[in-house]
Amino acid sequence: MDADQKNTVLKEGFLVKRGHLVHNWKARWFVLMPDKLLYYKYEGGKRDSCQRGKIMLKNCVITCPFLEYDNRPLVFKLQTQSSVEHFLESCSREKRDEWAAAITDAVEKLRTADDGGPPSQPETTKSKSLQFNNISLNQVVDSMYDIHSGIKLTNHVEQGSTYSNCFLGSAVVDWLVFMQLVLTRVEAVTLASALLEEGFLRPIGLRSLDAIRSAGLIEQFMDDSTALYSFSESFTKRGSVKAETSLSAVELSGKVMRRGYLLKQGHKRKNWKVRLFVLRSEPAFLHYYDPSRDDVSPVGGFSMRGCLVSALDDNGVPSGVKGNIQGNLFKIITQSDTHYFIQAPTHRDKMDWIDAIRKQT
After folding, report:
1. 266: which DSSP letter?
2. 3-state SS assignment for residue 349
3. Cα separation of 259 and 93, whole Å?
């Protein structure tokens, strides 16, 4: 690989990384090169020119999904040739899988260049998949119940109600792949559909019920981050589903229209922090989360009703903006006249966010 090829940027963006010595989580800007993954810190809203670290990709092993963090289902793991483990979290399942696929492709190209052979099957898919006709659905459900390695029961919101002791369709698919009961997400959907068809699992809420009414057997169990399911009522070992309604539940009940990492200026200290923004509709709200925390509750948010959103000129520092900014700025003014200054990673991200927000105001 020549010097120009090694300096090619394959992918870049925000990921949240777990520290090696102190196991806290920090948002970092990652740049994928053909032979390494670099990461940088953001200072005052601008990427630090000094890289904070690098992960060499030669003979790296990718585990995606990696489900050992209860409140962080979007983590994937990289294990280097020297057995150093790196844990990285993305803003969505789709982005997580994109990053894992891009890194896996880079690792395979390095291996092929070394030995001259054809690409091998990725390490994460080498385990033997159980044949469906030999699978005991009872054993699968027993494994799902396991208090240590089973699927995590959590609280979710739909149509203004908070449901406890349930899980997302995509979480079940992630778990089946992670436990190596299947090789692919397609196989996982098929197996999960069988559990649903045989009455081991049941749908919760409108999204999953609609999936059953409108889809065939293989598509009944949705690999979806909004469709809710639970264990059947006949299984009581791990709690029953309860529905509670609250004001916060109503705010969080809308359909997710867009999510991603953005930089937000603080109202008091005027410093810039990376936050995970989630835009919902019906009701239309924009919430933001601190990715360094394990808490799944938003740290702030506001209704989109009556909001104004506008792009800010990148030439100079606009009024009200502090610090060393990189550009791609936009501003949201709420109905109560609170001003939010936000930076997107790229100009395209900025325009996409502005367009998505305007549709909800």
Report:
1. -
2. helix
3. 11
pTM: 0.73
Which amino acid does the sequence have at 79? Q
Tokens of 360: 């909800």
What's the average model confidence in pLDDT over 297-322? 85
The distance in angstroms from the start CA to the end CA of the chain is: 50
Burial of 24 (0-12, 13-18, 19+ CB in 10 A): exposed
Residue 162 neighbours by CB distance under 10 Å: 18
Give pLDDT, residue 131.
Answer: 45
Identify the H or E element spanning 112. Answer: helix 93-115
Domains of the chain: 3-125 (2.30.29.30), 132-245 (1.10.10.10), 254-358 (2.30.29.30)
Provide the token pair at 212. 């059953």
Strands 161-168 and 154-158: antiparallel
280 forms beta bridges with: 256, 285
Q: What is the pLDDT of residues 28-82, one digit of tens each?
A: 999 999 999 999 988 767 777 777 788 999 999 999 989 888 788 899 999 999 8
Q: Which of 20, 65, 315 lies closest to 168 in space, CA to CA?
A: 65
Residue 341 token pair: 């200054």
Read off the DSSP letter of residue 64. Answer: S
Cα 307 from Cα 337, distance rounded (Å): 9
* b/e sequence 198-226, b meaning 16+ C-beta within 10 Å: eebbbbbbebbeebbeeeeeeebbbbbbb
d(CA 102, CA 145): 33
DSSP for 314-347? SSS--TT--S---S-EEEEE-TT--EEEEE-SSH
